Amino acid sequence: MSQAAQRPAGPAVRGGARPTLEAVAALAGVGRGTVSRVINGSPRVSDKARAAVEQAIAELGYVPNRAARTLVTSRTDSIALVVPEAETRLFSEPFFNDIIRGVSAELADTDMQLLLILVRTKKERDRLATYLAAHRVDGVLMVSVHEDDPLPNLLERIDMPSVLVGRRSDLEPLSYVDADNAGGARMAVRHLLRRGCERIATITGPLDMEPARARLSGYRRALEEAELGWDEDLVGRADFTETGGREAMRGLLERRPDLDAVFCASDLMAVGAMQVLREAGRRVPDDVAVIGFDDSIIARHTDPPLTSVRQPIEEMGRTMARLLLEEISEQGRARRQVVLATELMVRTSA
C-alpha cells in the first residue's frame, strides 16, 4: 500500500491547501471581520450572516488556528467566574447555582471555557490577583461583591473586561447586572402593611454588601411612606444564611415579642426565621407573616410555602455573560449597568 493510501483522509479543501479565513469570508459573502466574530463567539452577528459563515466553514473544512490566534490577539478563550465565598455557601445557596446556570447557558454556543474560582483567604486573593494581572483569562465575572473587596479595583486598574453581579455602591465604575433590591423590599413591606401588619421586623444581609443595604433601604422607605416610625429593635442583622436567620429571629423575639411580620433579605434566612417562630409557638402567617427574597426553589418547599420577592437570578447570569462577551470582542466599549425588575410572588406565608 502506498504512503498516500495510508494517509488518513482530511477535510475536503479546494486545491489541497489549508482553507483560510479569507476563503470562508468569500464563500459566505461576508467580510473577514464577520467571520472572525462568528469564530470568536461574538453576539454582534446577525443570524443570517452567522448561518452563512457556519455553512462555509463546514463546506471548506476550515479549522481555526487557535495557537496562532492566541499569539496575535492574546486571547485565552477562557472566562473566570470569581466567588469570594467559602465552598459551603457556594453549594448550599440556590443563588449561586442559578447564576452559574445562567452564565453557562449563555456561553454554551461559544468557544469560551468557564473557570470557577473560589476566594476564601488573603493568600488565595493575592494569588488570584497575580493570575489576573498576567491576563491569563479574557474576562472576569464576579459575584457576592463586598464593599472592601480589592479585586474590583484591580480589575479596573489592569483594564480587564469584567462584569459584577451587584455593585459596591451607586458610583460603581465597572459593568454590573443587578436586581431592583430596594424596589423589591419596598414592595414586600407594602404588601405586609396592606395585610394589616403594624410591627414589621426585618432580617438584613451583611451591610458591607450593596444588595443588603438596598433591601434595608426599601424596608425603611415603605415604613416611612406609611408614617410608621423607625424602630431599631425591629432590625435583625445577619449574613444571608439559614443559621444567621435563626439567630436574628431569636434576637427579634427577645426584643419585640409583639412583632407581627418579618421581611427577610433572603429565602434562606426566612427558612431559619420560620423554624424559630415554630419553636416559639408562633403560627405563620396567623401570628407572624413572613416574606423572603430571591424566590428560590426553597420558597416553594417550605411549610407553609414562602412569599418571596423574585429576582431573575438565572437571567442575571445570562445578562452578565452577554455583557462580558461584548466587552471582550469590542475593546474600549463603554461600561454598562443593567438593573432587572423584581416581582412579589405571594404564597401562604404572607
UniProtKB/TrEMBL annotation:
Organism superkingdom: Bacteria
Pfam families: LacI, Peripla_BP_3
SUPFAM superfamilies in alphabetical order: lambda repressor-like DNA-binding domains, Periplasmic binding protein-like I
GO molecular function: DNA-binding transcription factor activity; transcription cis-regulatory region binding
Classification via Gene3D superfamilies: 3.40.50.2300, lambda repressor-like DNA-binding domains (1.10.260.40)
UniProt KW keywords: DNA-binding, Transcription, Transcription regulation
Domain HTH lacI-type: 19-73
UniProt keyword Transcription regulation present: yes
Cross-referenced PANTHER family: HTH-TYPE TRANSCRIPTIONAL REGULATOR GALS, LACI-RELATED TRANSCRIPTIONAL REPRESSOR
Name of the molecule in the record: LacI family transcriptional regulator
Organism: Peterkaempfera bronchialis
Phylogenetic placement of the source organism: Bacteria, Bacillati, Actinomycetota, Actinomycetes, Kitasatosporales
